[in-house]
Specification:
heterodimer, A: about 475 residues, alpha/beta, FAD/NAD(P)-binding domain, Enolase-like, domain 1, five-stranded parallel sheet, B: about 450 residues, OB fold (Dihydrolipoamide Acetyltransferase, E2P), Dihydrolipoamide Transferase, Chloramphenicol Acetyltransferase, 3 domains, six-stranded mixed sheet, binds flavin-adenine dinucleotide
């Protein structure tokens, strides 16, 4: 047996799992075919945040006069914006390399395939450097992540030129003047927000009847309004019937509310979801249970194949880096024989557009659908002192409590900095706080976070500043 | 070595109490048997005696502290040959070995070149992390939501095993415990189904702050509130009322007291009611019973609890096996128990338990009333005033001293016919007290 554990894929799921494995005294290897850090560090979470920062600053220059400041003219160097984003990704990727070394984790560069064996499948790696290596371990963890979903039937397939996925959208040579984004989840909205900030005409198409459909309905509504104020255009409840290339760009035929329409733009971004990386690894031959592109697991990440586990994006939604990491830690602690409850804590989700959106737990509608008697509270930033001082009065905080027990079961926010604030509610929910604990918690003044306190009070008719 | 003085358990079920008063201060010398403090539980005040001798080194829990957990260290005694000793290592119950899972060095972004100082390699820890005991000395660790759910379900957190970090009790544990709890205090899960009681503040109900004084709830008030609310809500109760002519009883009492005068004993009407109840319970044993989910407990003795009003509350000391005791003995016991109850000097075993209760408001002129069942007892007798009333005897109007008594029954054990049988057994005993001794 070469290793105790082999982790396949070095995204935030895989590399964190490997670190935890090493902490637990397990001899660990990690296999990566592309870049350490996976999608998250190289093509996802991190480089998009770098781009969005450039966009946000650029947009703010337009509002300097609101603060009594003045500049004449503004412009950007798109190449430098992209370069900065790549530099950030690279820095973090090499950070992961350092972490692997520090924890004495063997990094094997290459593409892994599995073969039937006991007690766990054998891992055959086609090495990047050429040749191959066969490895054995007591436990093998699949953390191979996911990629953009494509829908060839209606032309939602990247062509490397005008039809993009997030990968192409991250590194174009020039900034497009117009674009159509298909899909209004976090990824679609973030790119729309970024390119709009740089001045592109952007239309977002969403099949469901509201944008950011996983968010609370009130947030979706407020978000659409806020984005429209910035010049984004939306088509909701819209079905794309064909995406095709034209000479000058792309054209999208769609049907919205019974009306057919064709939109034209320079480029299109396909952001209609994620498919797990389950192909070409010999998983079928192992008889691994896979459901709609994702490996089927139990709460510890155990699959139906002995010795094989799966975590992160490849194991299903929510497709979030922090979910992948936590799932990995639970899985490896289970493997190491520690008592593991699985990932039961609520998982926050954030969209880093301008304004930001963040949420954790149940939406009001979902709670009601689950038969929970709900007490909901709201507080707008428009009357929050810090927000007014900072000139960031857009948005609100909404809380959802279980009326029977007083447990906080959901929190939803839109506005400046809310992606930093949401952790407060995540901690409260993880510690199983009730309304009283939130009432008792002292929030510093003046902060945007005070809106969290007020929204909690509001759910019980005790809001102070409205 | 200094010696820990621990919060004593005044009864097997006591979990916490109020440190009412210190009789010593640091520097005082005590010997075994000296009273060092007074502890108040929801039911009684007890004196704590020193077990060892020595000098009080430190008083760790200030007077008036509520909710001091049993076995918490409340003071330290300087042992012999202990100079100005350095603070000794607490010889506490073994603390939960917090099983420190090596912390993940959550450093997703170290610069490759500027490596942070290497953290000490966390010890590999492949062993099972057992859920550490949830008590760290004296605190029960539970999430706020778990506490509330337990309270709503009437569950005692002390009996719940925590599965959260460091053995913390979390929501899932309460749900698990509720699923299998025998729920003696929670018959038929009624409260659980009823959900929490939403209590509005007085202000919300239109009584402005400042228009009243607030007396803090003491342990006894809380206990009365909790036990009576639980009982009234959860026990299916009904009253049965009957009139009893007590001229014969009063005459007998006068005779008995004349006989006992030399012994300084005086039998009250209530003593005779207690005795009669005990005898009636022996004759109708189904009324001397408690409902439990496992079955009906048929009590061997008639342990009669008598309600004693205190300045701010009430307590029910018990005449054990009253069916075996003579009136004189009952009279002596009730007098002593009542006196000590008013001084809050009862021992827990003197007021805990009991199979039947008697509550008497006759001295206030109350004609009839129906008490709330004192769980887990099956019935309680409420005794009204004995007064002259017109009665019909042999078709003619006459005057008799009549006392109305009401039996509140727990229908789960005492059905209507059983309650009626008990009252019909009780009535002749009180109307013809001589029959008590046959
Ligand atoms: C544009 C964009 C923005 C995003 N923004 C956010 C965000 O803000 N916050 C957030 O939480 N999430 C975000 N995500 C999602 C996040 O990136 C993923 O949830 C996360 O990367 C999943 O981690 P993972 O470890 O499961 O998989 P990945 O990060 O996908 O890593 C899997 C790795 O496995 C490797 N691999 C696959 N197959 C093999 C094989 N056979 N052999 C060897 N190696 C293999 C891949 O090369 C890859 O490096 C974003 C995603 C995108 C696309």
């Amino acid at each position: 047996m070469d290793f105790d554990v082999i982790v396949i894929g070095a995204g935030p799921g895989g590399y964190v799992t490997a670190i935890r494995a090493s902490q637990l005294g397990l001899k660990t290897a990690i296999i990566e075919r592309e870049n350490l850090g996976g999608v998250c560090l190289n093509w996802g979470c991190i480089p998009t945040k770098a781009l969005l920062k450039s966009g946000e600053l650029y947009e703010q220059l337009d509002h300097l006069s609101d603060y009594g400041l003045a500049i004449t003219g503004r412009s950007y160097d798109f190449t430098k914006v992209i370069e900065r984003s790549r530099g950030v990704a690279k820095q973090l990727s090499s950070g992961v390399a350092f972490l692997m070394k520090k924890h004495k984790i063997e990094v094997i560069e290459g593409s892994a395939k599995l073969e039937k064996a006991a007690p766990a499948p054998k891992v055959v790696v086609a090495l990047k450097a050429g040749g191959s290596r066969t490895l054995t371990a007591k436990h093998v963890i699949l953390a191979t992540g996911a990629r953009a979903r494509t829908i060839p039937a209606v032309g939602l397939v990247p062509d490397g030129e005008r039809i993009w996925t997030y990968r192409e959208a991250m590194v174009p040579k020039t900034a497009p003047k117009s674009m159509i984004v298909i899909g209004s989840g976090a990824i679609g909205i973030e790119f729309a927000s970024f390119y709009r900030a740089l001045g592109a005409e952007v239309t977002v198409i969403e099949a469901l009847d509201r944008i950011l459909p996983v968010e609370d309905e009130e947030v979706s509504k407020a978000a659409q309004k806020a984005f429209e104020k910035r010049g984004l255009k939306f088509r909701v409840a819209a079905k794309v019937s064909k995406l095709s290339k034209s000479k000058t760009g792309v054209s999208v035929a769609l049907e919205a509310k019974g009306k057919a329409e064709t939109l034209e733009a320079e480029v299109a971004i396909v952001a209609v979801g994620i498919d797990g990386n389950v192909e070409d690894m010999g998983l079928e031959a192992l008889g691994l249970k896979i459901d709609r592109g994702h490996v089927v697991i139990d709460r510890h990440g155990v699959t139906n194949v002995p010795g094989l586990y799966a975590i992160g994006d490849v194991a299903g939604p929510p497709w979030l880096a922090h979910k992948a990491s936590h799932e990995g830690v639970h899985c490896i602690e289970h493997i190491a024989g520690l008592k593991d409850s699985g990932l039961t804590a609520p998982i926050p989700g954030c969209t880093y557009a301008n304004p930001q959106v963040a949420s954790v737990g149940l939406t009001e509608a979902a709670a009601k659908a689950a038969g929970i008697e709900v007490k909901a509270g709201r507080f707008p930033f428009r009357v929050n002192g810090k927000a007014i001082a900072a000139g960031e009065t857009e948005g609100f905080v909404k809380t959802v409590f279980d009326a029977k027990t007083g447990a906080l079961i959901g929190a939803h926010m839109i506005g400046a900095e809310v992606t930093e604030m949401i952790q407060g509610f995540a901690i409260a929910m993880t510690l199983e706080a009730t309304e009283e604990d939130l009432f008792e918690t002292v929030f510093a003044h003046p902060t945007l976070s005070e809106a969290m306190h007020e929204a909690s009070l509001d759910a019980y008719g005790r809001v102070l500043h409205i | 070595m200094s010696i820990d003085i621990l919060m004593p358990a005044l009864s097997p079920t006591m979990e916490e109490g109020t440190l009412a008063k210190w009789h010593v201060k640091p520097g005082d010398t005590v010997k075994a048997g000296d009273v060092i403090a007074e502890i108040e539980t929801d039911k009684a005040t007890m004196e704590v005696e020193a077990v060892d001798e020595g000098e009080i080194e430190a008083v760790l829990v200030p007077e008036g502290t509520e909710g001091v957990k049993v076995n918490a260290v409340i003071a330290k005694l300087k042992g012999e040959g202990d100079g100005a000793a350095p603070p000794p290592v607490k010889a506490d119950a073994p603390k939960a070995e917090a099983a420190p899972a090596p912390k993940a060095e959550a450093a997703p972004a170290p610069k490759a070149e500027a490596a942070p100082a290497p953290a000490p390699a966390p010890a590999p820890q492949p062993a099972q992390t057992t859920a550490a005991p949830k008590t760290d000395g004296d605190r029960v660790f539970a999430s706020p939501l778990a506490r509330r759910l337990a309270q709503q379900a009437g569950l005692d957190l002390g009996g719940v095993t925590g599965s959260g970090p460091h053995g913390r009790i979390i929501k899932a544990d309460i749900e698990a415990a509720r699923g299998k709890a025998p729920a003696i205090a929670q018959p038929a899960g009624a409260a659980a189904a009823a959900g929490p009681r939403q209590v509005q503040s007085l202000e919300q109900q239109g009584i402005p702050a400042g228009s009243y004084d607030l007396i803090p709830l003491d342990g006894m008030r809380k206990t009365v509130a909790r036990r009576m609310t639980d009982s009234f809500r959860d026990v299916p109760h009904f009253p049965l009322t009957i009139d009893i002519e007590i001229d014969g009883l009063l005459a007998a009492r006068a005779k008995i007291n004349a006989l006992l005068e030399k012994d300084g004993v005086k039998v009250s009407v209530n003593d005779m009611v207690i005795k009669a109840c005990a005898v009636a319970l022996k004759r109708v044993p189904e009324a001397n019973a408690s409902y439990t989910p496992e079955g009906i407990a048929m009590h061997h003795h008639a342990d009669i609890a008598m309600a004693v009003a205190l300045d701010h509350g009430l307590i029910t000391p018990i005449i054990r096996a009253a069916e075996t005791k003579g009136l004189a003995q009952i009279a002596v016991e009730t007098k002593d128990l009542a006196a000590r109850a008013r001084d809050k000097k009862l021992k827990p075993e003197e007021f805990q338990g009991g199979t039947f209760s008697v509550s008497n408001l006759g001295m206030f002129g109350i004609k009839s009333f129906a008490s709330i069942i004192n769980e887990p007892q099956g019935a309680i007798l409420s005794v009204g005033v004995g007064e002259k009333r017109p009665v019909v005897k042999n078709g003619e109007l006459a005057i008799a001293t009549v006392m109305t008594v009401t039996l509140t029954c727990d229908h789960r054990v005492v059905d209507g016919s059983v309650g009626a049988k008990f009252l019909s057994a009780l009535k002749p005993l009180l109307e013809e007290p001589l029959t008590m001794i046959v």
